[in-house]
């Protein structure tokens, strides 16, 4: 499970980076942009948290740094714009995803350690 989650987090990071930095015409639209951003980073955070369950602090720092870094890189493209509120939505979605993965991993660990019923 950990290996699959790590691979998924890399694939999601590449996809998020592409969509964030590509020309606006190439960006897929599936609904409300704020929900798209939060959802993408939530999935990224889930994969990252599940892939690196013992590195909660580093996962949180990394996902916030990715959100800030990719948003700042939009300043390079004249057709894109970097906005603080977009970065915050991405960072919050990612943090929620990492924390949710951490919680689920802990809950799963607690149930694995219980004695089986007769």
UniProtKB/TrEMBL annotation:
Q: Which residues form the VanZ-like domain?
A: 42-104
Swiss-Prot/TrEMBL keywords: Membrane, Transmembrane, Transmembrane helix
Keyword Membrane among UniProt keywords: yes
Q: Tell me where on the tree of life, at the top rank, the source sits.
A: Bacteria
Among Pfam families, the record links this protein to: VanZ (PF04892)
Key word Magnesium present:
no
Give the protein's recorded name: VanZ-like domain-containing protein
């Amino acid at each position: 499970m950990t290996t699959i989650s790590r691979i998924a987090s890399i694939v999601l990071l590449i996809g998020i980076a592409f969509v964030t930095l590509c020309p606006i015409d190439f960006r897929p639209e599936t609904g409300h942009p704020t929900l798209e951003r939060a959802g993408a980073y939530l999935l990224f955070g889930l994969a990252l948290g599940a892939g690196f369950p013992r590195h909660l602090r580093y996962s949180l720092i990394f996902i916030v740094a990715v959100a800030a870094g990719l948003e700042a890189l939009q300043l390079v493209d004249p057709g894109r714009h970097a906005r603080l509120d977009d970065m915050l939505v991405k960072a919050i979605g990612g943090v929620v995803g990492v924390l949710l993965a951490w919680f689920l991993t802990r809950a799963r660990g607690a149930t694995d350690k219980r004695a089986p019923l007769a």
